[in-house]
Amino acid sequence: MIAQRPAPSAADLLAWYDRHARRLPWRVGPAERRAGIVADPYRVWLSEIMLQQTTVAAVKDYFETFTRRWPTVAALAAAPDEDVMKAWAGLGYYARARNLKRCAETVAFSLDGRFPSDEAGLLALPGIGAYTAAAVAAIAFGRPAAVVDGNVERVVTRIAAIATPLPAAKAAVRAFVETLVPGDRPGEFAEAMMDLGATICTPKRPACGLCPWNGSCAAREAGTQEAFPVKAAKAERPVRRGAAFVAVRPDGAVLVRKRPDKGLLGGMTEFPTSAWTTDDGAPPPRRGRKPKTAAPVVAPAGRASPIADASAAAPFPAGWRRMMAPVEHTFTHFHLVLEVYRAEVPASTPAGDGWWSQPSEIDGEALPSVFRKVLAAAGR
DNA sequence: TACTCGTGGAG
DNA sequence: TCTCCAAGAGT
Questions:
Q1: Which residues of A are catalytic?
Q2: Spatial separation of the C-alpha atoms in residues A173 and A252, rounded to whole Å
Q3: Which residue is nearest to nucleotide B11 (CA to C1')?
Q4: Total-model pTM
Q5: Which of A25, A27, A226, A281 has the most other CB atoms within 10 Å of its CB?
Q6: Residue A307: its pLDDT value, please?
């Protein structure tokens, strides 16, 4: 008779966590906890929004900047949208910043400055989904919520050898976690699960020898750790092409404008660009109403005369000159190749629907990474 | 359910 | 170099 694997225990994981917890700026450390300090829901919420699909390393500086500048949800709610977008620039997924601001306003102005303490109340707020609602409820309010993120999915699909591909397996993962969540220290339990996934139960070459649950893991017993989680096949990444235009005044100011609030890089700042083509040369599908006349599209360099096409897509006639190397940038679901054009223009050139940004101001603009590459490619 | 939505670091 | 992917949410 072969001994059955014991069920994983929250107590074992918490004992491991007591020894190996990562010290992170948004966490209440053990010493503080002993001193009776509890988590600040604002800081927990802010960190969880920033950490959505984003690494701890990338978040740290932004978290420090935000909490120093806006120490409370009321302060964030009172800030101009534009300042928040500028502070978020470079972190990606800009809908998070828009929802962050809306959520802060709701909490500050409609909820008396207090975050809801239960999952349902949190879930109703903009930018807060199943994961974040559970995480804030558990970490900030001590609720025994089942916190399921990518780390937890990996840990649990291995422990229980769940072969159903994600995201279909999500319900089974959540059900499993619900059987484990302790009534005591549920927030630390959630942090422990995530730390375990981040440091021990890693995607490649997990350190099973160091895992507090290695005796309970079905995948490890079978030697198939790296086969989990099973994921649905991903779609291929198409290539889109376009042109970006950097107009430079004699004083060094460059012309920028604000992108539409919705969609890709919504609400952020950009250099004027042509429409971006899809693989087959057609313009990308539009969500809104079709314009009566199609926007001029720049053909890929080499296929037609880049200069001639660029002049049609440029924001205004000028001595546009194409930079040698195009900017390439990979988004989640497509790869972008942007030809960069630059022109020296007179001081009297009107800004149109945009504005002129001085060299001393450009770094502070809400300029996404792809357009910072454009700026660099234009030699600014 | 299946897309859309960024970025930069690790392997 | 290139693929994967990191504390997901909205539609």
A1: 48
A2: 55
A3: A204
A4: 0.92
A5: A27
A6: 46
Residues A143, A147, A150: CA angle, nearest 5 degrees: 165
Residue A307 CA to residue A320 CA, distance in Å, equals 8
Contacts of A70 (CB under 8 A, 6+ apart): A76, A79
Neighbours of A68 (CB within 10 A): 8
Asked if residue A370 keeps its beta carbon closer than 7 A to nucleic acid strand B, the reply is yes
Chain B positions under 7 Å from a protein CB? 1-9, 11
Nucleotides, chain C, CB distance < 7 Å: 3-10
pLDDT at A311: 72
- 10-residue averages of pLDDT along chain A (380 residues): 81 96 92 92 98 97 98 98 98 98 98 98 98 98 98 97 94 97 96 97 96 96 95 89 97 97 95 84 43 38 47 91 94 94 97 97 97 95
CATH number for region A239-377:
3.90.79.10
Residue at minimal CA–C1' distance from B7? A92
CB distance A127 to A133 below 8 Å:
no
User: Is strand B in 7 Å reach of the CB of A212?
Assistant: no
Q: Please provide residue A253's backbone torsions phi and psi, each rounded to the nearest 5 degrees.
A: -65, 145
Nearest nucleotide to A335 by CA–C1' distance? Answer: B6
Distance A222 CA to B7 C1' (A): 36
> Å from A313 (CA) to C7 (C1')?
41
Å separating the CA of residue A96 from the C1' of nucleotide C9:
8
Taking the CA of residue A157 and the C1' sugar atom of nucleotide C4, their distance in angstroms comes to: 19
Q: Is the CB of A57 under 7 A from strand B?
A: yes
In terms of CATH, what superfamily is A10-227?
A: Hypothetical protein; domain 2 (1.10.340.30)
Q: Who contacts A249 (Cβ-Cβ below 8 Å, separation ≥6)?
A: A345, A346, A347, A349, A356
Quote the CA–CA distance of A134 and A143 in Å, as a whole number. 8
Dihedral angle sign, alpha carbons of residues A232, A178, A22, A74: positive
Tokens 């109703």 belong to which residue?
Answer: A124
